[in-house]
Design brief:
The protein has about 375 residues and is mainly α. The protein has 2 domains: about 10-250, Rhopdopsin 7-helix transmembrane proteins; about 255-365, Orthogonal Bundle (Arc Repressor Mutant, subunit A). It contains 17 helices and no strands. The chain has helices spanning about 10-30, 35-60, 65, 75-90, 95-100, 105-120, 125-130, 130-165, 170-200, 210-250, 255-270, 280-290, 290-300, 305-325, 335-340, 345-355, 360-365. It starts with 7 loop residues before the first helix and ends with a helix.
Length: about 375
């Protein structure tokens, strides 16, 4: 039976739940082909569902045993936020079966485990009443696992945001949104890291003092719905859409990749740009009139290397070529290395040995006289 003494806090929670469900629908269906919207909308919906579950647990005695329907999917929070960021970064990526593995803990624990547990409790109420502390302990221990998982995804989101290239208009605004997301996860992790160990320590008093655990958690979930949900809808949804569309437009087809690869190699060999000791990926991109992230992706995906290693390989080959020229004996090894584009003896020796497996002096000695 529902507790008729529904307090004002729960009333405000119910308003937040209603608005969260409406917000999630608007975000998801605002642009149906938008993966960032889909994952973030689902996240807001799960916040709302978790808050509803919290209220029902407080208002209906033995709610989980009466209605053994999974409503708490906290282990899906991190993966949803992670893929929200992944699809902002690369809107052309496809969702593969490996991506589904991110949601496996939520499926196994949030759904199957708790469904079986509460179904068992439903038909064994006497056992459940005698072992209520055990059941609560299991739930809290799984909560500790949830902290680790959420902290891991917070780091993954941070790493993805750091790796985004600041080359497109709107990047700084997108970066600000990602900071809001990361700070929100840190707030949730911090609260759970404090609350769950305390709850485990006072496990026998948890029933009589549950409001000290559930109310703050409800407030945090409510803030997530209001602040993150409305912030995304009113301020960042359009920004992210425009940024995502620009990212989509600068990706290439396979034929375009090959053409760009040949253009890059031609520029390096014909113009000998690698001889510029101050050459950076930004300078090379400006020379080619390409966005930096296009150049980086072409080097990574078609040449299977990075900018630094690519330029160094050209410089090493240029040094080798100079050694076999007829007038090479006029120059020192260091002089030839500078001609090839190296700007210091230390870096030259280190890179040459990495590329060839021997020092420049040993290589010179190995040449036929």
């Amino acid at each position: 039976m529902i507790d008729t003494s529904l307090d004002s806090t729960n009333f405000y929670f119910l308003i937040a739940i209603f608005q969260g469900i409406v917000l999630s629908c608007i975000i998801i269906f605002r642009s149906r082909d938008s993966k960032p919207n889909l994952f973030f909308g689902l996240l807001v919906f799960l916040f709302s569902l978790s808050l509803l579950h919290l209220i029902l647990e407080e208002s209906i005695h033995a709610f989980n045993s009466k209605f053994p329907i999974p409503m708490e999917f906290s282990l899906a929070y991190g993966p949803l936020a992670y893929f929200h960021v992944k699809y902002i970064k690369n809107p052309l990526r496809t969702f593969s079966w490996k991506d589904v593995l991110h949601f496996l803990p939520s499926l196994l624990l949030d759904v199957i485990f708790f469904l079986l547990l509460f179904t068992y409790v439903r038909f064994n109420l006497d056992w459940a009443n005698e072992n209520i502390t055990l059941i609560q302990t299991i739930a809290l221990v799984l909560g500790l696992f949830g902290i680790v998982q959420l902290a891991t995804y917070t780091y993954l989101i941070y790493r993805e945001s750091v790796n985004m290239k600041p080359v497109l208009p709107g990047f700084e605004k997108v970066k600000t949104w990602l900071r809001h997301l990361i700070l929100s996860w840190c707030l949730l992790v911090g609260f759970l890291l404090l609350a769950i160990p305390i709850a485990l320590f006072f496990i026998k008093k948890l029933d009589t003092n549950s409001l000290y655990f559930y109310k703050p958690l409800g407030v945090i979930l409510g803030l997530f719905i209001y602040i993150l949900g409305y912030l995304y809808l009113l301020k960042y949804l359009k920004v992210i859409k425009n940024y995502k569309d620009r990212v989509r437009r600068i990706h290439f087809s396979k034929n375009e990749f090959n053409e760009k690869k040949e253009e890059l190699l031609h520029a390096l060999t014909k113009n000998q740009l690698y001889k510029d000791s101050e050459l950076t990926i930004l300078k090379l991109a400006k020379h080619l009139d390409w966005p930096v992230n296009n150049l980086s992706r072409i080097i990574n995906d078609t040449l299977h290397t990075n900018f630094t290693d690519l330029i160094n390989s050209y410089r090493v080959e240029a040094f080798k070529q100079k050694l076999i020229e007829s007038d090479s004996d006029k120059y020192s090894i260091l002089g030839l290395s500078e001609e090839a584009g190296f700007n210091s003896k230390t870096s030259f020796y280190r890179i040459f040995k990495k590329e060839t497996g021997m020092t420049p002096s040993d290589y010179v000695k190995s040449l036929p006289k």
